[in-house]
Amino acid sequence: xxxxxxxxxxxDLVNPExxxxxxxxxxxxxxxxxxxxxxxxxxxxxxxxxxxxxARAVGRHFMDxxxxxxxxxxxxxxxxxxxxxxxxxxxxxYENLPDERDRAEALAPRVREFSDFLVNVLGVxxxxxxxxxxxxxxxxxxxxxxxxxxxEPLELxxxxxxxxxxxxxxxxxxxxxxxxxxxxxxxxxxxxxxxxIKALDESGADTLVSCDSSCLMHLKGRLRRTGRETxxxxxxxxxxxxGG
Amino acid sequence: METRKPTRxxxxxxxxxxxxxxxxxxxxxxxxxxxxDGDLHDSVELFTNKSVAGRNAVLNALPEAPGLRERAYHxxxxxxxxxxxxxxxxxxxVEGRGGNVFFADTGEDVVRYIGDLARRKGAKVxxxxxxxxxxxxxxxxxxEEDYAxxxxxxxxxxxxxxxxQLAGDTPSHIVGPILHMNRRRIADVLSGVAGEExxxxxxxxxxxxxxxxxxxxxxxxxxITGANFGVAETGTIATVTNEGNGRLVTxxxxxxxxxxxxxxxxxxxxxxxxxxxxxxxxxxxxKLTVYxxxxxxxxxxxxxxxxxxFHLILMDNGRSELLGTEFEEALYCxxxxxxxxxxxxxxxxxxxxxxxxxxxPIGAVITPLLKGGKEAKDLPHASSLCGACWEACPVGIxxxxxxxxxxxxxxxxxxxxxxxGLAFKGFENTMKNPALYKISGKAGRLARKPLAKAGAKDxxxxxxxxxxxxxxxxxxxxxxxxxxFRELWKExx
Amino acid sequence: xxxxxxxxxKVRHRTQRGRYKPTHAPDVAWTPKDEPPREDxxxxxxxxxxxxxxxxxxxxxxRVTNLxxxxxxxxxxxxxxxxxxLVRWDVPELEELGADGPLEEAGxxxxxxxxxxxxREVAGKADIGxxxxxxxxxxxxxxxxxxxxxxxxxxxxxxxxxxAVVPVEKxxxxxxxxxxxxxxxYAAGGAAGLPANVCLHTGPSRSGDIEMSxxxxxxxxxxxxxxxxx
Lengths: 244, 493, 230
Hints:
The structure holds three protein chains of three kinds.
Chain A: E1 2-5, H1 9-13, H2 16-28, E2 32-34, H3 44-48, H4 52-66, E3 74-77, H5 80-93, H6 98-107, E4 111-113, H7 114-121, E5 130-138, H8 141-147, H9 151-158, E6 161-165, H10 181-184, H11 186-203, E7 207-210, H12 213-225, E8 231-234, H13 235-239
Parallel strand pairs in A: 1-2, 1-3, 3-4, 5-6, 5-7, 7-8
Chain B: H1 27-34, H2 38-60, H3 65-81, H4 83-96, E1 100-104, H5 107-121, E2 125-128, H6 132-136, H7 139-146, E3 153-156, H8 159-167, H9 183-194, H10 202-219, E4 222-225, E5 229-231, E6 236-241, H11 245-251, E7 255-261, E8 265-266, H12 272-283, E9 291-295, E10 309-315, H13 338-342, H14 344-349, H15 360-371, H16 388-392, H17 399-412, H18 418-432, H19 434-455, H20 468-472, H21 485-491
Helix pairs in contact in B: 2-12, 5-7, 9-10, 15-17, 18-19
Chain C: H1 4-15, H2 46-56, E1 60-64, H3 67-80, E2 85-88, H4 92-97, H5 100-105, E3 109-112, H6 119-125, E4 128-132, E5 135-137, E6 142-146, E7 161-167, E8 171-172, H7 175-189, E9 197-201, E10 206-207, E11 215-216, E12 223-229
Parallel strand pairs in C: 1-12, 2-3, 2-4, 4-7, 5-8, 7-12
Antiparallel strand pairs in C: 5-6, 6-9, 10-11
């Protein structure tokens, strides 16, 4: 099995350790990982703001970089949101451009979110990881609704030794990041984070886990601003703990 | 006369430190006040939590619910594709039953039709059951102003709508119009009408309202309703109310006027069994609304009650503009309010922040579309695009995709603004070019130092100027890593 | 006045524009993974289910076997509510019931829904409304009320207490079954098959507009009784 790693731009620049954990976990499972160097971004910021032409241009670059059917079996990304952009929304933005649409539709099933890839492609549910603490899991909205990858990360976390995975109130609620929404509607965005944080406090968890670093960046920013020391980790980081 | 002219809503003072202004005016300004209003927050939370729990329980209990949603979507799709035919059929059916039909292009046409009718009938008291279509066109205010000489008394009879009317307020939710008011506020409003102090007690307030509105029901000259559904085949109007006001308004006054948006049609009578169930379960968490009332034309010969005269107004008011476009699915809406209840933005702001008759995700979609042009251009951005609305919608309207398409429409029509255009052109150029992308990352890391210096202690900037300030006003800025992933990869993992 | 032909032509023209691609909504919340308590679609005992649903809504239901029991129920209800005026539908079933005499004897005036000078005056004053129903729906505890000669809509609506008498064989299982009756009626008989008013009446009138607190008897009757006979 050979995969191309897609490290979204904010993971590349802000949370590169997430990418490192993904590589280590995959290699431990015998997967050959390559990192196409021409990669940049999926185009989602432009798309979400309505700049479809700009998103299409970036999408073309993404497809140029990642098509490589001969070279790798799958494209794996540690982000439910960026995976959704490629697998769900590329066919949407190229709807009226037959060439690109065909390319997008061919690429879509090969682009997989990290936990989806582990559980549904590799058939792995237990990584032999260890993490002490009580955790809640935040499912990013794209992962929940467009991808429908709900149970996979939870199953992986339930098999982490020492980890007490607990539920939290209204867990299906969006964290309030929403890409450019977080700066276009900052007051509401922060109020949404506060509702999540209130639920987090009530759950008694000391760790917040997600498959989306973007949600985590937003929630962590608010947690720190309000003086909370909650650990904030990407699923890959948890699965990578204690060397497996 | 009990009804007062609507007054401008008093804006609560914002006592918290000023944040940075959002690049999107309008919604954000109103929302900023709303998120600081503790009473409002509690009221909205109570309503939405209860509504979502009720809906989930009663929808999940119905084994065929997913199939019903599928059918609803397809019925609406078929209706819209042949809307002219179904409208014609509906009009024929109503006329065949002795009713009158009027085609109204605009709200103005509706106002004139009803005003002229009131004049002809010498009407004094008009009772109304809850109707979003008439809210949309501000029927009450316009009738009172344009037909001031008739001195009409227009009375809303849904408890919540009545209280809103008395308070000079507007509904903040499609289903729960005054969810933003607590019982103390409601007691204040009703005490003003009663001329005595009423306790903030649901029994006392409800009983007072029943007595007062009963007088109106019995003396009304004209009853006005909206339509939850209109059946093309039979000319039937379906209205659902729990209070019974919909059935009263259509049964007691001698004249019944229906104001129906043209998208409310369903082709066949049997389609009602799909929609009345979805509406009740999805909107209020009931298996069926208490009064699910089907009226077909005026009263039949031999009947003593029921309206003698029946008028159906088929209102366009911008709706047909959506037909055959990428926004057509917005017309499938059955106004159940489920998308408001699950919306994480609505939960924080309530309905008035949207500044329009329709709030929540469906409001953010249809308000700019119905109003057209640059109106309500803030609303498509009042969403984190989480898709909870899409998931909850009993007709399967892809509301968040429609919001995306609306944002794109703004870009195409030049509403989005030059600065944003330039920013995203820059984004495109950077992201198409790996070398440029790499340099930008480096530049970002370099910029951190002076920023940190300008910011605060511990090297962590607390607040920043410019667009980044919108982030740092409430959140810490993430640290850029000393080395991006691509460098770590090169060095070897 | 907007012209019908012009209006419909505008609509037709707009429906002809380019189509859009339909989207499929996710059904995460529609087909939940945990098996929730499901309603039993078979409904093996419709009368029992009807009574159960009606009680859950705060209505009162009772199964009776003969007209004597119905009379007794109505009489004792009238006494209990200290009723002065009862208004009832003018239908053969309620003539047969023979409750008018005993009610009058008990000091309750009975108004029958025929030839009324001012129906508002009568129905608005009445303490109790009494009617039959065309059908009842087990699934939801619903009465299907038709308008027509002798069958006043206001009777079921204006008095604070409302009683309906329904033979058990009139109980349908589901809402679609009831709606199908009228769809079929219309298909067979046109306008004659679909009365000017059909109301699916489900439990006491209520409002939740004040802080989501239940207020019963908002505009319609808050005190609803259904007697299933047979």
